[in-house]
Design brief:
The protein contains 14 helices and 11 strands. A hairpin with a 2-residue loop joins strand 8 and strand 9. It is globular.
């Protein structure tokens, strides 16, 4: 009863992920492409800026595709203008799902890993008819000036999967409807179409979904929307499938979901996705599915364990989707008493890598242009950072795997190997970006010498070498 997109045969005509009100009073309608987060918005179209993602690519969706687009929009909803609320987890939140160890697992097995056992998540028996779990089964809680926000303790815990911040209503059409209208227009002098005209028109019409190109009998070309839908506020962490951050120095501040940033999902944020801890001013709360996977591994004594983590998220700039990132990362099992040690190693390697990346970026920048121009340049050099984090990922996780097997401490051999490989990668990228040019100038060589001096003379890197007895001759 809760998963009918059309509301046919359902009490009150409730429709999946749509407002219980039919919104018939809303005069304007929106093209169905607006359900797609990456589709160009009204202002983009007005200013003719739809350069990469063109307008008019999606004009109709089949009911399955419309349902998926609607669900995706509701659970990831970015800011959408005055009164158009963001999703329960914030706009464009990160989703993390546990991956089974068998690469050939079925879709069901992959999903089942992320369904938390009732014994591990204590909550009262849900009522699947009153809107406490599925909000579209009840009248919308309006969030205008007189409305109230929705907090975690005001709904059932399972509501976190089904947040519905937008008031929307799909306008569902069928081929038969079009056929009748077409046939009616063909019959002279009457408003009623004869059966022969309808049958002829029906056979002449074929509608296809613009995403899958599959033929469909029912489809959506427009929808209605109304602002001031449910407004989710307060602390919704820990969430089953989304990691959160908080300021451990200011516990009164509300945690917020981790989101993708330009450059993709790299091991720079891996600890935020896989640990629950407070470190300095930053705290992070991993998704519940990771705690659940850890419980399964412990109870089975290692016989049943997940292989890794699948992290994905839109990279949103308010209403604009800058990209969508998806990345698979490893997870490790280590005893609770050794987790703090491991986290310390993770943060140290990330910090040192960040220091090297910054110096490499500056060296390349000052090689590409004169010092005067480099200081004034506001050009985007983030591709250097992205390249380095991506190409050094295997080195990082090799070192972390060593620490996991050593009670959370990095061995001297692994530390030495990690730093040597990182320094080699630094010089290799500089070579590719600068020294591969047809003409190598004195400025290029001077920057190379400065970069080498940094790699083997920087205070933090030197302290790391001394701590692990690694020297530059290695």
């Amino acid at each position: 009863h809760a998963f009918s997109l059309t509301g046919d045969g359902v009490a009150k005509g409730a429709r999946f992920m749509q407002d219980l009100d039919d919104l018939a009073s809303v005069k304007s309608i929106n093209p169905v492409a607006g359900l797609l987060i990456e589709a160009p918005g009204g202002n983009t179209l007005k200013l003719n800026k739809d350069f990469f993602i063109k307008r008019d690519k999606v004009n109709q969706l089949s009911l399955p595709m419309a349902a998926m687009a609607l669900f995706t929009l509701q659970i990831n909803a970015p800011s959408g203008g005055v009164g158009h609320r963001t999703g329960l987890r914030g706009g464009g939140p990160m989703t993390t799902l546990v991956r089974p160890s068998d690469a050939n697992s079925s879709l069901w097995q992959k999903l089942w890993w992320n369904v938390i056992n009732r014994s591990d998540w204590d909550y009262p028996d849900p009522d699947f008819s009153n809107g406490s779990v599925f909000p579209w089964l009840a009248p919308t809680r309006i969030s205008d000036k007189t409305g109230e926000p929705i907090y975690y303790d005001q709904v059932h815990p399972l509501h976190v999967y089904w947040g519905m911040p937008r008031r929307m209503r799909l306008i569902i059409e069928s081929v038969d409807d079009i056929a009748i209208n077409t046939a009616t227009e063909k019959v002279d002098g009457t408003d009623v179409a004869d059966n022969e005209s309808v049958n002829t028109a029906t056979t002449d019409i074929e509608m296809r979904d613009d995403l899958t190109c599959e033929p469909c009998q029912q489809f959506v070309r427009h929808y209605r929307t109304q602002n001031y839908g449910p407004n989710y506020e307060g602390d919704w962490s820990p969430h089953p499938i989304t990691p959160y951050r908080h300021n451990s120095k200011k516990p009164e501040e509300t945690p917020f979901s981790i989101k993708a940033q330009p450059g993709g999902i790299t091991y720079k944020i891996w600890h935020m996705l896989t640990f629950t801890a407070s470190q300095d001013k930053t705290g992070f709360i991993r998704a519940k599915v990771l705690d659940h996977a850890n419980e399964i591994q412990q109870r089975s004594r290692g016989r049943i364990k997940a292989k890794g983590l699948w992290a994905f998220s839109y990279d949103m700039d308010n209403m604009k989707a800058r990209g969508f990132y998806s990345h698979q990362l490893p997870i490790y099992y280590i005893s609770t008493k050794h987790q703090a040690r491991l986290l310390k190693v993770v943060l140290e390697l990330q910090m040192l890598t960040g220091t090297i990346v910054k110096t490499l970026r500056d060296s390349i920048k000052y090689s590409w242009m004169s010092e005067r121009h480099a200081k004034d340049s506001k050009g985007d050099m983030s591709m250097i950072d992205t390249m380095f984090w991506q190409r050094s990922e295997a080195m990082f996780f090799n070192a972390i795997a060593d620490a996991v097997n050593n009670e959370g401490l990095l061995t001297a051999d692994a530390a030495r190997k990690w730093l040597v490989n990182l320094c080699q990668l630094t010089l290799q990228i500089y070579d590719e970006q600068v020294l591969s040019a047809d003409v190598v100038s004195q400025r290029h060589m001077a920057q190379l010498n400065n970069l080498r001096a940094f790699l083997y003379g920087n205070k933090q890197l030197t302290e790391f070498r001394n701590k692990h007895k690694a020297n530059k001759d290695d």
